[in-house]
Design brief:
Helices cover 75% and strands 4% of the residues. The protein has one domain. The chain is globular and about 75 Å long. The strands form 2 sheets. A two-stranded antiparallel sheet has the order 1-2. A two-stranded antiparallel ribbon has the order 3-4. Helix 3 packs parallel to helix 11. The chain is mostly helical. The protein has 11 helices and 4 strands, in the order ααααααββααααββα.
């Protein structure tokens, strides 16, 4: 899909306006985000994504529209893993409830900029090297296996802990907060508050997760504009999802396995498409299936539904026992 420069400009400007307006609102009226408010914001961002998809259907045709929906659902579902890291970081640094929204917003905005660079590099690599699909596919399958076999009581914040320790050594930081300020003065010397560490750690964690999610969406579409838009909408609604389902994360017992299945499926899809691009139609007597975008979307949605229902059922049985 050819996207004129002015469309890119308008899209980036609109996303920037939304983020800045949200940041100004959070800074002017810091408060604890309740379930009702979070639900309304999640509904708002999902509605914006739906309107964007509708615009693609009308202006670009069903193909780009379906690709965006599949990409958005995939990015949003894979981003749920980020919420576990958010919980760990915000609790570890004892971030006040009224400041959590602002911290998440700034951290996610930073990660969106870094992800845009990753998307640009990935798009260029795909158009220059067809074999990169084999690399992306193998990476996703490896990640899927790693997710599936990791122990349930493993330390999911191991890498983030190392990142945080590195940041503390590089960035001069006070021991205590000073309201919602990022910087303060200690004995006349300007220093960062722990807020900056949390923001940078959230941004870094989002980029780490992008190493899995970006190759995954390239398995559904190679259009850089759609990839960027799906990531932007997923990330903009992620912080509100944190306040909505943060207390339910411990009940999603099979979420990791569901995400592993999705990553493995897309990894296999990528390798099949790479083989088809090389003119390979079968492996011996086995014909390679063509997995369309609607089939991919159906499989992803079904996996998420089964994972969620099974998790809640097991949680209910455990509570009853």
């Amino acid at each position: 899909m050819h996207v004129p420069l002015w469309v890119w400009t308008v899209t980036v400007a609109a996303i920037t306006v939304v983020i800045v307006a949200d940041l100004v609102l959070a800074d002017r009226r810091p408060h604890r985000i309740g379930v009702r408010e979070a639900s309304l914001w999640v509904l708002c961002y999902v509605s914006l994504a739906a309107l964007f998809a509708l615009g693609l259907f009308v202006l670009a045709g069903p193909g780009p529209g379906e690709e965006f929906i599949a990409g958005y659902v995939t990015e949003y579902s894979l981003s749920v893993d980020n919420l576990f890291v958010f919980v760990l970081l915000l609790s570890r640094f004892a971030v006040p409830d009224i400041d959590q929204h602002k911290i998440l917003l700034i951290g996610i905005a930073i990660s969106l900029v870094l992800r845009a660079a990753c998307i640009a590099a990935g798009t260029a690599a795909i158009h220059a090297f067809q074999w990169i699909f084999f690399v992306f596919g193998a990476l996703l399958i490896y990640t899927a296996v790693k997710l599936a076999i990791q122990p349930e009581d493993g330390d999911p914040d191991f890498h983030e802990s190392r990142t945080v320790r590195l940041m503390r050594r590089i960035v001069p930081t006070t021991e205590h907060y000073d309201g919602s300020r990022m910087m303060t003065r200690v004995t006349g010397k300007r220093m960062f508050t722990p807020m900056i560490i949390v923001v940078l750690a959230i941004g870094a964690a989002n980029v780490v997760f992008a190493l899995d999610s970006i190759p995954a969406i390239f398995g559904l579409t190679t259009d850089g504009y759609i990839v960027f838009a799906a990531n932007a909408f997923a990330l903009m609604g992620l912080r509100q999802l944190y306040f909505l389902v943060g207390g339910l994360l411990d009940r999603l017992l099979y979420l990791t396995y569901g995400l592993a299945v999705i990553l493995g499926f897309i990894g296999v899809k990528l390798i099949i498409e790479a083989l088809e691009g090389q003119g390979v139609q079968s492996l011996g007597s086995v014909m390679l299936p063509h997995i369309g975008i609607l089939a991919s979307l159906g499989f992803i949605a079904a996996t998420l539904a089964v994972t969620t229902v099974a998790s809640l059922a097991r949680s209910r049985l455990s509570s009853a026992a």
